[in-house]
Amino acid sequence: MASLPFARLFCCLSGDTLFGDCRVRSLVILLALGSAAAELPASVKPWLSLPNIQSVTVGTESRVVTDEVGRSVAIPTRVRRIVSLAPNLTETIYALRLEDRLAGDTDYCDLPVAAKAKPHVGSPQNPSIEAIVALHPDLVLATTSINRRETVDALARLGVPVYTTDPHAVRGMVDSFGRLATLAGAPQQGAALVAGLDARLDTLHTLLADTPLVHVLFVVWLDPLISIGQNTFIADALRWAGAESVVLSSQNWPQVALEEVVRLQPDYIVLASSHTGEGSRTLEDLRTRSAWKDLQAVRSGHVAIISEEIDRPAPGLIDAIEELAHQIHPNAFSMIPRDQSADSRIQLLSLSPTTTPARCLECAR
Q: Helix (H, G, I), strand (E, B), or coil: what is residue 75?
């Protein structure tokens, strides 16, 4: 049960059982992430330091590529069937309009809703190798953020190609989407998605360029209090939103003493909606908790409840970054009308695979 405490980064189930309770699962993937990262080979590096996909032709049926942890993987030239082992990868496949090639995913893959109808191979931490093989995948996608090395090694021994992503930074994550599209033989879809997301990040950077960073506490879990380390993709996402974590830790998911948070007095408390329940009740709840009510941010109502997409290194992460930026830097957006009715994820999924999306200057999307 060592990995039990961290289950909502990337996934969310419903129900009343231990693993089905969203409040518990919000904790499961966090520890799962930490344990998975600890088991990675020493060769794992931040993927921005890796070269672009290098491929050589092996006969006429396959090519060898280098994945984001430095492994050489032989992948069929034509990828028709993909199995995703993580919710963020499944979401990316749909954003790339490659869902017709998705042969299977995990029990926790819930975005978009259509992903729930795909054949499931089990949990990201302990998928069924037999179920994966039975789907006859040309390519399996895994990530260091949640999957275990043992899973990748077991599939490799069976001759199943596994490409592993290694998200640490937002720009690197976006570039990775293009690489996945190239692997699947759909570079135009990848270019369109990457261009659209990069344009939104560039707009955000311009709008916040002269705005001081807001010091925040990002809450992964309330009791015990778990936050984020400096080298996580969430920490980088905060920086894009014009924020900086008050917690300085080399651990990815450190447990923090509430007394230390009171000493640091962050400007804002930031929580994902999936971690807290209803947002309005969360602020009221924090104001009734000892020590929490001693935080000026809580007394002032500076509690930002944002989309659960902040937990996933997927295209929807950009939505969450924009959402947080609007909440903590309202003055930077005061002259820019924001179309609250626009669902950017739907816009992403409906992108033309051959057309680079135009940037909307009015709503920074």
A: strand
Q: Is residue 237 part of a domain?
A: yes
Instruction: Note whether 124 and 256 are same-domain residues.
Output: no
How far apart, in whole angstroms, are the C-alpha atoms of residue 216 and residue 166? 25
Number of independent structural domains in the chain: 2
Query: What percent of the chain shows pLDDT beyond 70?
Result: 73
First to last CA, the chain: 42
Asked whether residue 136 carries a pLDDT value surpassing 80, the answer given is yes
Residues 6+ apart with CB under 8 A from 292: 258, 286, 298
352 in Cβ contact with 186 (< 8 Å)? no
> Hey, CA dihedral for 76, 97, 164, 115, is it positive or negative?
negative
Domain that holds residue 327: 210-334
Beta-carbon-side half-sphere exposure of residue 298 (alpha carbons within 13 Å)? 20
Q: Give yes or no: residues 226 and 195 share one domain.
A: no
Q: Please write the tens of the pLDDT for every residue from 53-72.
A: 443 334 448 899 999 999 99
With a CB cutoff of 8 Å and minimum separation 6, the contacts of 83 are 102, 103, 104, 105, 121, 132, 135, 137, 139, 140, 141
pLDDT in tens, 165-183: 998 899 999 999 999 999 9
Q: Give the DSSP per-residue string, 296-327.
A: HHHHTT-EEEE-GGGGSSSTTHHHHHHHHHHH
Distance CA 166, CA 40 (A): 10
